[in-house]
């Protein structure tokens, strides 16, 4: 739970429309010495004037509230972040490892220039990956590997499986084929307001080097906007284990882990005596098997309720894997399905299961059955 959740809502000016309107009419009646009846042109004029004042009050209240971190968004949030030397993380391109294969071994070294473009099959050049550095295939060698980044920042480069990025856009002599060895991953959209707001809130942790748990967590989250949660533990003195989690419960690739490690091992961040290990979360698998029923009195809504239940189950699956150490909680699933319109839910799995702070729950199989109509 964020500390923002414990803060009560706040208004800087009165935005009660009825109170403002009644106040204007009461003041005028007091000054005029006579009541204003409905239909009186003067009353209609004052009511129109009150609407303008109400809108101005609401705008003033909004503009004042967005000066506070809890309510700030967009450029205003960027300016608040600047006070703490915290900037919004830009969109990041997905990365992969490419292997270039020669048609024959050569007697001299072969150079693959930086910026060589390779696209997914059938993409038409709309999206491609560029090599990040020059690679040299030595004399007698037939292949070489290099990291490449997607031309389009964001998540569009994620998910290309090994072997799917295989179209050489920039032909090279003696290069017979090219293929990605790793899945495209690590691409992320620009940091959201919610994630940026939380990083600003925890920015004071950065005033210390990464020794306290909060400092390690803060610095780890600066490595990529795709990171939504970080667990930090110390199994032995001087040993620190850092576990990041990505959006949608995605496990971090080795490239993301390397980026986090690079940030945490910077000489201005890591205490000299700390041995830092960055690793992916351990997954705890669970199944979803349930049957639900719809109230016979709502038979006309049965189809829409089935759609709502399906969406509720998907939302539960995402919720369950969006935070490290979140216990597998069947009560949450039942509540969501019943909130979607189910009358009764019979759940076989999952059962309540504790999840460790370095673990993440991932659903394996999902079997949701509509049991039909039932009487209340």
UniProtKB/TrEMBL annotation:
Residues 107-187 form the Baseplate protein J-like barrel domain. InterPro entries: Barrel_Baseplate_J-like, Baseplate_assembly_J_pred, Baseplate_J_M, Phage_Baseplate_Hub. Signal peptide: none annotated. Pfam families: Baseplate_J, Baseplate_J_M. Residues 209-280 form the Baseplate J-like central domain. It comes from the Bacteria. PANTHER family: FELS-2 PROPHAGE PROTEIN. This is Baseplate J/gp47 family protein. It comes from Paenibacillus antibioticophila. The lineage of its organism: Bacteria, Bacillati, Bacillota, Bacilli, Bacillales.
